Every structure is written in structure tokens, then in C-alpha cells.
Amino acid sequence: MTPELQVDEALLLRPAANSILVAMFEAYQEDAEAAQAALPWLNPEQDVRRQLRDMLYDIEAQKGGDRLHFWSIHTTSTGEFVGLVGLGDELQSLHAAFNLGYWVRRVHRRKGIAMKCVNCIFSWLAQRSDTTTVEIAVHPHNEAGLATADAICKAWGGERLPEFIGIEFNERTVPHHLHLVDLGPEA
């Protein structure tokens, strides 16, 4: 089950739910390019609001299980939607249990929010009785994403694999860097 997590005095992670659809769609409209980078399966030629709704429905349908864990990021003072962070099951590595993804609204970027949220989630995962491997796939031109993934690896003892991996997006294979982080008692 996905728990609510307190990141710090200013940020809260709530299990993602359909109730954030309007705020999430507004965030998409503010910066469609960044949303597209974070959610590359989104097809801007189709109804984006419906695609986001379907994603949130799928997340809620998994509620209570351990295959997916997605959180909406909110300010504690006003409850404003800041972004989304999640552990998904679209995996590239045979060793990984989850892949990490995050998306922070433009106005909240460059404040370390993604890193704070990841630290909170990884601390939660590290309390498990078994080691959990999380992968982070980043497009080689996404400099901010690479910097964040490298910082996560440095903080949590992870590594960037030397070879590129190909990920299918819209019938194209796109090379990505793959980072792996082991969390838990034997990590």
C-alpha cells in the first residue's frame, strides 16, 4: 500500500488519486514539453486530459498492491499541487523492482524538490526487509535529469550503467542512460 509521506515541513506526498486530475492537467498546460519528457507515453495529438485520467485510474486500480507507488507532491501550507513522483513497473533491468519517475511544475523547479521527495521515498523503501532495486532511465540530452539521477546515485550508493539502453517510445527506439540503486538491509 502506498503511504502518505511527510517530506519536510513544506512538502507532503499523498498517494496519487483522481482528485488531482484538474491540477495535473493545468500543470501539463503550463509546460507541455516538460510534462512530455516526464511522461513520454503521452500523445499530444490525442486527448491529454483523458490520458492523464486513465493513468490516475490505473494507479488507483493498483491501490493496496506493491507493483506501483505514485504520489502527488503538495505544499503543506496551501495543499497546492507541486508535481508527481512515482515508482512504476515499466522496467528495463531484470534486477529492478521499480523505475523512478518525477515531474515538478515549472514554478517549483530548481528548489531541490525532486531530490527531497526521492530521499523520502528511498528512506521508506530502505526500511523493507528485502533489498529493493530502483532504476532511473534518463535521456542523454536531459541534463537536469542526468544531474538529478547522478545526485541520487551519489547519495544512495547507486551507479550509472556504462552502456545505453534502448527504450521504445511512439514506435521509435530512444537511447537512455540507466541508473540502478539498491535499497534495503543488504544494500
Description of the structure:
With 187 residues, the protein is of the alpha+beta class. It has helices spanning 21-30, 32-38, 48-61, 113-126, 143-156; strands spanning 5-6, 11-15, 69-75, 81-88, 98-104, 132-138, 159-160, 165-169, 172-183. A hairpin with a 5-residue loop joins strand 3 and strand 4 (81-88). The radius of gyration is 16 Å and the shape is globular. The mean pLDDT is 92.
- Count the helices. How many? 5
Helicity range: 25-40%
The end-to-end span amounts to: 22 Å
- Give me the count of strands: 9
Beta-strand fraction estimate: 25-35%
Radius of gyration: 16 Å
Element pattern in H and E: EEHHHEEEHEHEEE
Question: Which sheet architecture does the biggest sheet show?
Answer: 9 strands, mixed
| Average pLDDT taken over every residue | 92
The stretches of 5 or more residues where confidence is low (pLDDT under 50) are: none
User: What general outline do the C-alpha atoms trace?
Assistant: globular
Structural class: alpha+beta
Highlighted features:
187 residues; nine-stranded mixed beta sheet; 5 helices
